[in-house]
Amino acid sequence: MQKALAIGAAAAVVAVVGGTAAFVLTRGNADDKFAECRTSAVAGGAGQIGGPFELVDENGRTVTDQDVIQRPSLLYFGYTFCPDVCPFDTVRNADAVDILKERGYDVQPVFISIDPARDTPEVVKDFTANIHPDMLGLTGSAEQVKAASQAYRTYYKKNDAEDPEWYLMDHSTFSYLVLPQDGFVEFYRRDLSPEQMADGMQCFLDAM
Asked: pTM (2 decimals)?
């Protein structure tokens, strides 16, 4: 499995985006109950990623991380006007969740908009409904979105455009596995297949 190769590899930087933390491949910690599952770690430890947030769900209700992360969740930061990357990544995540469901595991896919100016709760709800019936969409004020993004060390930037309604966003593309009792435990790159993601997540779910 790819996991075993990654755990045995020497430390190497995978990505540094904007002001985000450096993601590295590293050996697992013997005191970590998820050590055999980890293919990656964050500089400073997994505790550097995640934490409290307050956002608005697709039904217009203000929610916190405790409201959202009540079961294993796969978080992705993107935007609904994204022409290619976000639809591909969110569909891949939904497929991984469905594979796990067939294996008897319950994981919630979550989409967090980094474009609150256009992504109202109604817009986000339409987007998530077209991707997966169980996908939860979140948006919020610019300040709320920024705080959530900073908690997960994601990067996003609005590109200038002549038409203010048709701009694009630069953003990081990691997906984050978050567990109710443990918080953030792993991130997944966008080059992984649904099957690879499902295999990786299953290891964490078995170790909970």
From this structure: 0.85
